[in-house]
Amino acid sequence: MALFDFLRAKKNTANIAKERLRIIVAQERSSRGGPDYLPMLRRELLEVIRKYVSVDIDAVKVDLAKDGDHDVLDISVSLPDKPGAAATG
Protein backbone atom coordinates (compact mmCIF):
# COMPACT_ATOMS: atom_id res chain seq x y z
CA MET A 1 0.00 0.00 0.00
CA ALA A 2 2.98 2.34 0.33
CA LEU A 3 3.05 2.59 -3.46
CA PHE A 4 -0.47 4.02 -3.48
CA ASP A 5 0.41 6.50 -0.76
CA PHE A 6 3.36 7.63 -2.84
CA LEU A 7 1.18 8.18 -5.92
CA ARG A 8 -1.50 9.94 -3.91
CA ALA A 9 1.10 12.33 -2.47
CA LYS A 10 2.03 13.47 -5.96
CA LYS A 11 -1.59 14.16 -6.73
CA ASN A 12 -1.87 16.32 -3.61
CA THR A 13 1.30 18.16 -4.62
CA ALA A 14 -0.15 18.74 -8.08
CA ASN A 15 -3.35 20.10 -6.55
CA ILE A 16 -1.38 22.42 -4.30
CA ALA A 17 0.66 23.68 -7.27
CA LYS A 18 -2.53 24.17 -9.29
CA GLU A 19 -4.13 26.17 -6.50
CA ARG A 20 -1.02 28.33 -6.11
CA LEU A 21 -1.02 29.01 -9.83
CA ARG A 22 -4.67 30.09 -9.64
CA ILE A 23 -3.78 32.54 -6.87
CA ILE A 24 -0.89 33.98 -8.87
CA VAL A 25 -3.03 34.37 -11.98
CA ALA A 26 -5.78 36.07 -9.96
CA GLN A 27 -3.26 38.51 -8.47
CA GLU A 28 -1.84 39.31 -11.90
CA ARG A 29 -5.29 39.94 -13.32
CA SER A 30 -6.24 42.23 -10.44
CA SER A 31 -3.02 44.25 -10.72
CA ARG A 32 -3.58 44.82 -14.44
CA GLY A 33 -6.95 46.36 -13.73
CA GLY A 34 -5.41 48.99 -11.45
CA PRO A 35 -4.96 52.62 -12.42
CA ASP A 36 -1.90 53.41 -14.54
CA TYR A 37 -0.79 56.20 -12.21
CA LEU A 38 0.16 53.82 -9.35
CA PRO A 39 3.70 53.01 -10.61
CA MET A 40 4.42 56.73 -11.14
CA LEU A 41 2.98 57.55 -7.72
CA ARG A 42 5.20 54.88 -6.16
CA ARG A 43 8.33 56.30 -7.86
CA GLU A 44 7.53 59.85 -6.78
CA LEU A 45 6.84 58.80 -3.19
CA LEU A 46 10.16 56.94 -3.15
CA GLU A 47 11.98 60.06 -4.39
CA VAL A 48 10.44 62.22 -1.65
CA ILE A 49 11.14 59.66 1.09
CA ARG A 50 14.75 59.30 -0.09
CA LYS A 51 15.27 63.03 0.56
CA TYR A 52 14.94 62.30 4.28
CA VAL A 53 15.72 58.59 4.77
CA SER A 54 17.86 56.16 2.83
CA VAL A 55 15.47 53.40 1.76
CA ASP A 56 15.53 50.56 -0.75
CA ILE A 57 13.46 50.68 -3.94
CA ASP A 58 11.20 47.91 -2.58
CA ALA A 59 10.49 49.90 0.60
CA VAL A 60 7.45 51.65 -0.86
CA LYS A 61 4.37 49.64 -1.78
CA VAL A 62 1.27 51.29 -3.24
CA ASP A 63 -1.93 49.30 -3.69
CA LEU A 64 -5.52 50.08 -4.48
CA ALA A 65 -8.15 48.20 -2.49
CA LYS A 66 -11.93 48.18 -2.51
CA ASP A 67 -13.86 49.11 0.64
CA GLY A 68 -17.50 48.72 -0.29
CA ASP A 69 -18.23 51.38 -2.88
CA HIS A 70 -14.96 53.24 -2.25
CA ASP A 71 -11.43 52.74 -3.55
CA VAL A 72 -8.80 52.93 -0.82
CA LEU A 73 -5.19 53.84 -1.56
CA ASP A 74 -2.95 51.71 0.65
CA ILE A 75 0.60 53.04 0.99
CA SER A 76 3.17 51.08 2.97
CA VAL A 77 6.72 52.30 3.61
CA SER A 78 9.30 50.06 5.27
CA LEU A 79 11.74 52.30 7.08
CA PRO A 80 15.19 51.10 8.17
CA ASP A 81 15.83 50.38 11.85
CA LYS A 82 18.47 53.09 12.04
CA PRO A 83 17.60 56.13 9.96
CA GLY A 84 20.65 57.14 7.96
CA ALA A 85 21.57 60.42 6.46
CA ALA A 86 19.50 61.71 3.61
CA ALA A 87 20.20 59.86 0.40
CA THR A 88 22.12 61.79 -2.19
CA GLY A 89 20.78 61.91 -5.71
From TrEMBL:
One of its GO terms (molecular function) is identical protein binding. InterPro entries: MinE, MinE_sf. This is Cell division topological specificity factor. Belongs to the MinE family. Gene3D superfamilies: Cell division topological specificity factor MinE. GO terms for biological process: cell division; regulation of division septum assembly. SUPFAM superfamilies: Cell division protein MinE topological specificity domain. It holds the Pfam family MinE. It comes from the Bacteria. The gene is minE.
